[in-house]
Amino acid sequence: MKLLEINNIKKTFDDLEVLKDISISVEEGEVVSILGPSGSGKSTLLRCATFLETMDAGSMYYCGEEAVKDVNGKSVYASKHDLKRIMNYYGLVFQNFNLFPHFTVLKNIMDAPVHVQKRDKKEVYDEAMSLLKQMGIEDRADYLPCQLSGGQQQRVAIARALAMNPKILFFDEPTSALDPELTAEILKVLRQLAEKKMTMVIVTHEIEFARNVSDRVIFMDEGYIIEQGAPEDVIDNPANDRVRAFLAKVKG
What we know:
By secondary structure, this protein is an alpha/beta fold. The protein has one domain: Rossmann fold. 36% of the residues lie in helices and 29% in strands. It has nine helices and eleven strands. The protein has a six-stranded mixed β-sheet with strand order 7-8-9-3-10-11, sandwiched between helices. A five-stranded antiparallel β-sheet has the order 2-1-4-5-6. A hairpin with a 2-residue loop joins strand 1 and strand 2. Helix 3 packs parallel to helix 5 and helix 5 runs parallel beside helix 6. The protein is globular and about 50 Å long.
């Protein structure tokens, strides 16, 4: 089943065209990694997919539901009521965690399922504790974010996203704010989610991780998708000169 379909989206900031006719789709259970140099449009693509930025042109569907339609080359969004429902299909994990600093770890995880999704508090509590256990930080439930390491904060952020029971999880460079040891922790969590067939779209600079975990790799440059396919093709045997040059540089 196709969980996400984005067709011909364009996004401009002032005079700078950041996304130039981008189309992607993501199947249920698929892990898609998005690679490319800084400024290539990767994060903007994720922000458009999660309604943090407004697309200028193009259409978007979640689980077959029309979130954005293209009318004469302009994006027209569904009603607020429909978008609110559609937003339950996905979760987003930021590079800088974005936890509520004055909430405990447990309250960070429970707040949206209880107050936004109106779910039973006891059920949400049990699920939150189970997620903390899965992340290896069940003993940190009553801590504030400032009392945690960066890696622990990122694991809380992942647990918070999972607590909404999304169909698809987006990650915007989830390890870029972490040192190498903490990066390894988070990549391990993502590997475990991939093994459980969690559908994920991951913007990352971690080439080895993308090779080992992804079903598909998308390479972006200057607002275009310039190559996509199986990781062994795109990473190990790229057809595009720009991709080859980038990978040679980052692999050292």
